[in-house]
Give the backbone structure.
Amino acid sequence: FFTNQPGVKIPDYLKERYPEEMTIVLQHQFYDLEVDAEKFSVMLSFNNVPERLTIPLSAITIFADPSVNFALQFQPLSEEDDEDIRFDAEELDLDKDDKQKKKGEVVSLDSFRKKDKDKDK
């Protein structure tokens, strides 16, 4: 992740050591992972000193899971690109879609049960 990105919160000594980019591994020894729509924060130990790191998702440069041979590389967006992908929820008109969805129906399970022909005799 980019350490100089706005919103990145790491200890000063880590920022001095990694002024532009830093790699962290979340595998066995991490704690208190919290993720939301804009950032994640996690407790990691550096020289046996626990530290909380907060990293905006926009600061992530690579995500990799070597156990399944999977990796994603992210390119930072320019301000123009960022503005292009912003949207207004009103433009989506989510309420209209919800109203058009069919309401649930109650179906009797009796209609699916086998009828006992011997019972009628």
Observations:
- Residues 79-85 form the longest helix (7 residues).
- The mean pLDDT is 80.
- The helical segments are 12-17, 79-85, 89-92, 94-100.
- The CA atoms of residues 42 and 97 lie 37 Å apart.
